[in-house]
From TrEMBL:
Belongs to the class I-like SAM-binding methyltransferase superfamily. RsmB/NOP family. It comes from the Bacteria. GO terms for biological process: rRNA base methylation. GO terms for molecular function: RNA binding; rRNA (cytosine-C5-)-methyltransferase activity. This is Ribosomal RNA small subunit methyltransferase F. Residues 1-138 form the SAM-dependent MTase RsmB/NOP-type domain. Signal peptide: none annotated. S-adenosyl-L-methionine binds at residues 2-8, 26, 53, 71. Gene3D superfamilies: Vaccinia Virus protein VP39. The keyword S-adenosyl-L-methionine applies. Keywords: Methyltransferase, RNA-binding, S-adenosyl-L-methionine, Transferase. It comes from Vibrio maritimus. The active site is at residue 124.
Amino acid sequence: MAAAPGSKTTQLAALMNNQGVLVANEFAASRVKVLHANIERCGVRNAALSNYDARVFGGWLPEQFDAILLDAPCSGEGTVRKDPDAMKNWSLDSTAEIAATQKDLIESAFHALKVGGTLVYSTCALSRRKSKRGRASS
């Protein structure tokens, strides 16, 4: 659902022995080019690349995927210790927006997943602040 730059995509393709269909979606058009380059470089032949906001998959493709890996975008808080400039872009509002996006993405992934399928969710977000919708997220 957020596939660039492609290391997890290429690992999944290898685990699948380049068989079946692997949908690698990336929302940021500028990052799709890097994703495509890495997939080509690694000889992946079973990947279909898409460039959508992954929040649409649950509605567009309900119960269609056997497995979904969602490495959700994060607030970047973990980079503050090594990148002092990261604090210039950080705010409580941006943290709440990221939390809301993460919630939307996991809900979309859940709806796109077949009954009995596997959903792997990860994020590097550190904040336990609530999203703007008032629900706790981390």
